[in-house]
Amino acid sequence: MTTVGRPRPPSAQPGLVVAVTGARGAVGAAIVRRLLASAHAGVDIARVVEFVGDDRPLDAGLLVGSRGDSERTRAELPRATDLQGVDVVVHCAVDRSPDTPAQYRYAANTAAARAIVAACAAAGVRRLIASTSAAVYGAFPDNPVPLAEDAPLRAARAGIIGDLMAVDETLRAARAEHPRLDVCILRPAALTGGGVDSVLTRHFAAPRLLEIRDSGMRWQFCHVDDLAAAVELAVLGRVSGELTCGCAGWLTASDVADITGLRRVELPPAVVFATAERLHRAGLVPAAASELTYIAYPWVVPSTRLRSAGWRPVYDNTTALQALIGDLVGEHASVHAVFGRRLDRRDATLAGAGAAGATLAVLGAATFVRRARRLRGH
Q1: What is the pLDDT of residue 59?
Q2: pTM, full prediction
Q3: What is the pLDDT of residues 164-201, one digit of tens each?
Q4: Which of 345, 361, 98, 8 is nearest to 212 (CA)?
Q5: Where are the alpha helices (DSSP H) in the chain?
Q6: For residue range 30-58, what is the model confidence (pLDDT) as tens digits?
Q7: In a 10 Å sphere around its CB, with 0-12 CB exposed, 13-18 middle and 19+ buried, how is residue 339 labelled?
Q8: Do the Cβ atoms of 313 and 306 come closer than 8 Å?
Q9: DSSP β-ladder status, 241-245 and 182-188
């Protein structure tokens, strides 16, 4: 086990030394698995250093063969002295949880992005790789399907997407500030698999599948294992710059309903956005109205540069969505959600009982609000 703060000597084995922050999160863990498996298969990776960032007991490391061993440290973010001998840093220590207080999450995410850039530059790391989200392009009725990879970033600076916009901006600025540091930004479509938990995944844990009338929504996904494969290409220097990452094509609302088996509820946009905003301002749900645009309007991306470099996702949109549904059934079978807020079985039953027909989602949310206020004594 490596002691945090003590410089690491260069690897005795040929190949890259890669450090992964946030290595116990859904994205970080998938990337570590991919890099270790590739090292075992003879890819040019000597060692993976995992910054796990929690207080759980550390194991002695994972050995996958004559090369490609793994070291773990409790720090979530390395200092420059921790990165001596490291060639590539993959930054995954980004809090995307809807349950983290927004002000704290924003401060932590932006500070982490600045800290990792500074540490990499000071330690002479060759390459810094991070994933934000294709959501930074924004979801709008006039978005072309698909967007261009060099399309302007138009997302609202609010909620989790606002955090990711700020992180993306910090990484882009790092190129000018630290020209010797090669910065690669991956922007995946809606992530699924590996225990990913987000406002978008919780959309599929609702009692009914909410659709916004006449929105023209097109769904696109990216499984974390396919994102990890894209990260590996960046680690090996086969891609760089700003790249989108998503399954080919898209699914319609009807496709999504057929795949998930959920009954649909279609509501006017004014009703949905106004209700979501009231709930959010009352502090009862994590999703701001601006975040619900991502279930209303398309934000499909092409992955042109990755595909040109040979990236071929294992999952398509259908199987990526099926993986998400499988996770929800396996891990949260008794949990539902309304506008990103998890409800226990009793809350979900109340929501269903308090609504009928086409108004289920909004009236169910209103029932939840009334119950929550009673419990608070309001």
Answers
A1: 58
A2: 0.82
A3: 999 999 999 999 999 999 999 999 999 999 888 887 88
A4: 361
A5: 26-40, 102-123, 159-177, 199-203, 224-235, 253-260, 269-281, 304-308, 317-331, 345-353, 360-376
A6: 999 999 999 888 888 999 999 987 666 66
A7: buried
A8: no
A9: parallel
- Three state DSSP letters for 127-156: EEEEECCHHHHCCCCCCCCCCCCCCCCCCC
In sign, the C-alpha dihedral spanning 198, 201, 207, 211 is positive
Q: The tokens of 178 are what?
A: 């630290």
Q: What per-residue confidence (pLDDT) applies to 269? A: 77
How confident is the model over 98-121, as pLDDT tens digits?
A: 788 888 999 999 999 999 999 999
pLDDT, tens only, 106-160: 999 999 999 999 999 999 999 999 999 999 999 999 999 999 999 999 998 888 8
Backbone CA torsion sign across 7, 13, 17, 20: negative
Give whole-number Cα distances, 358 to 272, 289, 371, in Å.
12, 20, 21
Average pLDDT of the chain? 80
DSSP letters spanning 59-96: -S----SSS-EEEEES-SS--GGGGTT--EEEE-----
Taking a C-beta distance cutoff of 8 angstroms, is the pair 30, 194 a contact? yes
CA dihedral 278, 284, 288, 292 (to 10 degrees): -90
Under a CB-based contact definition with an 8 Å cutoff, are residues 82 and 4 in contact?
yes
Going from the C-alpha of 68 to that of each of 29, 37, 63, 113, the distances in angstroms are: 15, 8, 7, 27
Report which residue type is found at 107: A
The residue behind tokens 């995946």 is 188
DSSP type of residue 296: T
Query: CB 48: neighbour CB atoms within 10 A?
Result: 29
Task: Find the distance separating the first CA and the last CA of the chain, reported in whole Å.
Answer: 52
**pLDDT attached to residue 355:** 27
